[in-house]
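hi got a favour to ask and not much time before my train. below you get a single protein, a line of residues and a line of whole numbers that encode the local backbone shape. could you go over both lines and see whether the tokens make sense for that sequence. a few lines back from you is plenty, here it is:
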Amino acid sequence: MVQSYLKHGPTQVPLIIRHRKYASDPLFQAFGVVCSSSSNSVFDGKLAYVPALEDVLVWDQISMWHETGHREEVTCIVQSPQSDSFAVGYADGSIRLWSASTTSVLTTFNGHKKSVTTLAFDETGTRLASGSQDTDVILWDVVAEAGLYRLRGHRDQITAIQFLSVSEGQPSTSTSTAPALLLTSSKDTFMKLWDLTTQHCVQTIVAHRSEIWSLAINQEQNLIFTGSGEGELKVWKINHETLAKGLKETESGEVAKMIESVSSLPLASKHRVSQIKFHSTQPYFAVQSHDRSVEIFRIRTEEEVRKKQARRKKRSVEKKRQEQTKARGPKAGEVVIEDDKEETMETSLVEFFTPHLVVRASGKIRSFDFGSNQPSSKGIAQILVALASNALEVYNIPHPTKSKDEPPEATRNYSVDIPGHRTDVRTLCLSSDDQILSSASNGSLKIWNMKTTQCIRTMECGYAICSTFLPGDRHIAVGTKSGEILIYDISSSTLIETIKAHTATVWSMHVRADGEALVTGSADKDVKFWSLEHKAATEDSVQSGKLLSLVHIRTLKMSDDVLSVRYSPNSKFLAVALLDSTVKVFYQDSLKFFLSLYGHKLPVLSMDISDDSKLIVTCSADKNVKIWGLDFGDCHKSIFAHEESIMQVAFEKDSHYFWTVGKDKMLKYWDGDKFEGIQKLEGHHGEIWALALSRHGNFVVTGSHDKSIRVWEKLDEPLFLEEEREKELEKLYESGIADTLNRVDAPIGNDAGGAINGTTEVEAATVSKQTAETLMAGERIMEAIELADTEREMFREYEEAMSKLSENDAMRMQPPARNPVLAAYDLEPEAYVLRVVEKVPSTALQDALLVLPFGNVVTLMVYLNIWAQKGWNITLVSRIIFFVLKTYHHQIVANRIMRTTLIPLRKHLRLALQKQKEVISYNLAALYFIRRKNDSERTAQFYEEENMDEEKVKARIAEGKKRKRVNLRA
């Protein structure tokens, strides 16, 4: 009989939040993350939308945007002008449009081959532009849920995108109804201006000597600010007159420049300008050019600048008068006035944009955003700062003061840092009842409730390396990098004792099975044994009663640094792993040498002994796991387990199954008897440092460099190794096919040139990307077409045979049995094909059609003709027809057989489209009629009730149109 195992997966835990609306929504959650550093954050004045690895968190903790099965990291977030909609870019090149109110995905765009680096909506929110590490810019139609075109020209990662609004009178060779300009910047030092109506780059500017990291346009859309890697902030002017005229030559024969250089603004720091942002309603803009601070500039009006110039002019006149009075006498002032009339003071850019204040955060800043929609009660602007240390801070920006003695300072209003660690999670341990989890990092020790995943205690500590719950689950011992053992009392959240145990890092500690002793191993080459004793609390102690303490009993000197120590469950042996890659096994009572386990090429970082004390498993920096017999010290098996160093290993209770975690971001499950890998679990986005197993084997907890803690629960679903291997092979095969179809011969990145195989690269191209989903959708369409063709052919042959016989002929037969699939759905063959095509997501339809061989395309045209004739889903039919004709134009033109299909298709489609047009026209006319009727009734009502004249009535109606709509709830 084939052995089966139980599958493990991400734990489904409830998200505890304030709003009852979401309280019952179960979500797959990685807890301990406040804000990851993979993406920018968005702040609307009330809520902060921040990346949390593969999810998006909405603070103040009202929801989490999670898509089941998707594990790629969030790399970019932008809010649409339609405020409920957000575009989120991911590391795999996909873009998802999320609805904030329903926390669900509206649509998914796949077009980029590398991670999305920047996103931008146009003014109406109907078009979305995306830039990526693959150097391409793609324009998406949000309404039609399709990619419009791909713009190529940059030679390195796209860093910023901005839409420029265009006057309706601008000349253009295109018939597009939405003219616009797009401004892009890249690490290739270029800034490009694209005309979206012609899909062509109209100007390329070498903006900086180094990479352009940020770009912003002011509210009036006449100035562009760009920031470079060298800390330079340049200002460019947009010439709207030239934009209105289009590409025209000047008298000198040169093409007029649409963007011209103005000057540069001085910054307080010379570090990389990583972000520039304008406030949407108040006269501020901010620049981040330092790791820990954001510089806020105030935008002055022309009137303020003129007043300042006048004051400066007046002061200079008075100064000169005083100087000349001292030198020549009282009549010298007349000369100054005459000279002053000839002086002209030019308005500089620095006078319009003046430094206001500097916001200094408590950690390294990843991104910032202004709270634009809802300013505070006093009209003070707010700025959200997302830190790379897994924290958020909101600062108030005060109004400028006239006093020079007290410069304005930003005050911190809110901060979110308790629910997560500032640094890597280095050690985890679980209480004996699996109810409480302890996690420690460099600087903090946190206690978590495993049912709610809420942080219930936070205590300061040193650089924690290892930890364990002491018997009774009321105290935790933490080993630090400085060689100390810190003992904490959980109930009072206090450090009750600090023991200077070692002179170097405490790498490992373990409590003996009987709970009477603790062993520690350190880099000072000592293994120390400690007895657990209770002592009376002192008068200064916060806690009353007995306190747990460690008393040093004896020391075992080793020849090298001790990396791991472990008692056997039967308390007979003690295993010690050394820096020389060996493991020494001693009798724990007498400390006599028993075995030496030699075989690893690099140091053993962790080990564990099975509950029956028969097997010991060791994991090493050489990426191997070795399983040894504890009776003779023989190596049962050596397994190449991970792609990087294996950080920790642990046996499951009462079994020979064990878990390993490594720097390759993987958690793996193994059978220690059959020496086979059972399951690989992906989820973390950084090295996994820590592992903790529940005492009952129900779940596994992992802690990582990405500052997240993940719980993997044992499910009721059985797992068969052969099926898992087949699934892995299928996944590998599908991804291989997709990669082959998406392969581009042009290099990507700094070496990307403008030519492929000696030909000039096309500036605008179609948007397509094959994924496993599009390949499956294409296969489903092919299967549906073949099934329908078989069914139609069978009935056609039957009807032909019956037509040759008379009605009373004895040879007449019953019609053949229908296909079971068609009979189950009770559909005709052509209706079934339409059903399959309709189920393909709109964004994946074009890529799915590209999978079809030309033979299936010819057959599909026959079905398109039938659908057009019957008037089924004309919108979808039109979209498919236009895409197929554009894609397979050369084959269709060369194929004479297609003529018999295309002529009736043209006729039927025109009739169907004409009917659609008539329906829309009728509905529009009805809506216009209703509006006119409503206006006339309101006008008559005003005349009758309030005795107004015509002008007052029009004003009242105009006021009514401006009123906001309010949704009332019962």
Observations:
- The chain has a mean pLDDT of 83.
